[in-house]
Design goal:
The structure is a single chain. The protein is mainly beta. It folds into two domains: 6-143, no CATH class; 164-303 and 367-478, Methylamine Dehydrogenase, Chain H (7 Propeller). It contains five helices and 37 strands. Strands 1, 2, 3, 4, 5, 8 and 9 form a seven-stranded mixed beta sheet that branches. Strands 10-37-36-35 form a four-stranded antiparallel beta sheet, with no helix packed on it. A hairpin with a 2-residue loop joins strand 16 (247-251) and strand 17. The chain is globular and about 60 Å long. InterPro entries: WD40/YVTN_repeat-like_dom_sf. This is Two component regulator propeller.
Length: 479
Amino acid sequence: MMKKILLIALLVFLYNSTYSQNLYPEKYENCHLSNFCLDCGDTKANPPKTFLDELKNNLDKKKLSEIKGIIEVQILIDENGKSCLLSSVNKTNVSSKKINLQKAINNMSFWEPAISKNKPQNSSVSLIFEFENGIVSAKRRVFDFKNQGNMKSVGNPEVKGSDKNNLSVKWGVFTQQNSELPWDMTRAISKDLDDNIWIGTDNGIVKIENGKWHHFNSKNTTLPGPPYNKDRTQSVRNLEVDKKNNKWFLIGWDAYKYDNNTWTKYDSVNSPINWAREIFVDHSNNVWFTSWRGVSKFNGKDWTVINKQNSNLPSDKILGVYVDKKDQIWIGSSEGNVIIENGKTKLLNDKNSPLSKAFISKMYEDQKGNLWFSLYNDKSDDAGMYVLNTVGKWTKIEHPNSKMFSEHTINDFYLDEDGNSLWLTLNAVGVLKYDLGTKKWEVYTNENSNVPSIHCERITKDKNGSIWIATYAGVIKTE
């Protein structure tokens, strides 16, 4: 037992299955187990006796003297006791990256793994670190799965928002308290071909049709409930609508298709899907799924897989995939980007291109044929938004704050060609609007606007031109 870490009983409104999910918005690479459970075991996982000393020694010494506040972390402990940092939420004055948080956790001595039925098992634990005057203390969250209600996460923005008097739009907010939203924690949102809005929450799915809310959950569909609470529905991590108006959802480990009548589950038994991360529907109505084992494509009948073994990808850890109008397949991996044309794979390593310095997380081809990229790299200022025009010229969409995109991940972007604006959701900040005509940026946070959370995810647009965004504290819509 860790004597210096206090066990505290806290009702946590867990927003996912006990298996496979990030509890917090800051997500870390190279930390993945095929399955694990949350704070489980007849005997729970326990840290080494030297945990606090090791933590302090592994953190950046200079930043440790400056940091003040609280960081909550989710740590994976495998059956051998090896630890790695899966997710965190930082409420301090110093970023998790600058304090070397991931390195500090990953270099820790071995834990005592969780034990169930006399066998070690993979699990995750949640700790709360409090920093002040160079001293770090820790507490452990104890999860009560029997007493759960609605959950939301608000947070404090790491970037100051724009002057509220100069903002061009106002937001309406839908929550469990003022609407039929079943849960405030939402991650996915999309518009279908009939102009209905679909929302994926951490407790069910909503369809808004002509102002009427329709609910889909574990009670009225085949959607799964979490193992610890069968009255709930597992979290919807992503959703997309294909060209035939089928709705695709990522729930738990698996993908689900809803054809407006029947639900079909795709898992490792009847498909190559194994912990899919993102969904993309191309112009030919193929549905693509990214994962840490390559990218899978479903044409409605057959499955194919593109991975390191059969297509010379730099890595099987796929961040994004896109098929352009020329049927070129763009793939962003954790170790580089490629383009596949006529079955031939080309590594995009031209030093004059931003694709040699950051990784594709999302793409979009506009009406003129320009390609828009959000690029990810947590170690470089080359992350951010870029445009590749039809004659091969790159343009970086600069923000006055040069660190805006290198220190905060772009969760999603939406190019509103009719409104001549670009919308982005930025982790630990909120919502950004970029006017393509005036080149003006607007930053919406929960301090200067009705945006309720610093954790904003997917973006869509309805038939009336309103922008909708899923957040961790409700769904927002431009008024």
